[in-house]
Each structure stands twice: as structure tokens, then as C-alpha cells.
Model the fold of this input.
Amino acid sequence: MAAITLGGNPINTSGELPKIGSKAVDFKLVKTDLSTATLADFAGSKLVLNIFPSIDTGTCAASVRKFNEQASTLANTKVLCVSRDLPFAQKRFCGAEGLENVINLSDFNIGDFGKDYGLEIVDGVLSGLHSRVVIVIDENGVITHTEQVAEIADEPNYDAALAAL
Done:
């Protein structure tokens, strides 16, 4: 369980992030067209998992914009933006913002991704949503970087995530 804060108030997550050097856990998430995406769908690509509570908050939106900007220059790399938002909200946001270099995936229907990766918020007003996390996975499915952002309102360390690629 990780102790993080929301506006300085302590909250907890469901577990610990996966260890660097470990194999990424498979997942089933929902794409904006309502089809299913799994880790195997991205085999052979480097992945940046940009995980956050909701696309409709300023910090979450900023992280999607920033990774969208960076993703267009990265070879063999895909940025997956993961939240519990409905796929419709994710699609609306990226369409309105003109963001085309990230892939939005939703954990709305089952919630296993947040539990399996140890990042589901388990108490406080955001209980059930994902905490703000960045995980980098290499082309062999091995985790090379993780960051659990200590304060939900803060942005992740973009440079550290990109350097892990």
C-alpha cells in the first residue's frame, strides 16, 4: 500500500507498483471504440503508461497533452493513457484537444488494472479511481521505470519517464 496525498490529505492505494525489472502484468482495457486492448496488442513496442484519476481534471489533462506532444517524436513508442473514465469522455477530450499521438484506454467496467498494478485509490473522495502513476515498459514487456506521484494534484516527472525509454 502506498501513502499518497490529495490536497495534502493522506490517502492510500491498493498496493505497491510493479518492481523495475519485472514483467508487466497483462491487462484488458476498453478502447474508445469499445473494443478490448491487452498488453499483447502492443508487443514489440515501448510503452509509456500515463495513469491518472480522471481526464476531466487539470493535471490529468496536462499530462495527456504533454505526453501527446512528446509521443510524436518517439520511435517505436506508444503512450497509453489509462483511467476509469468512460471511453466516451476520453474520446471527447482528445477530439476537442486535437490529441492524436496517445491511446486512451479505460478500466471503467472491471477495475482490475488498478488492482493488478497496485495503484487503485482505496480511501478518500477518489476511492475506486486510479492514482497518478507513470510506468514505462520496454519492447520485451519488462518494466524499466515507475513513478507513483506523491501528491495527486502534481504532474509526473516527464523527463524521468522519457529517459527510461
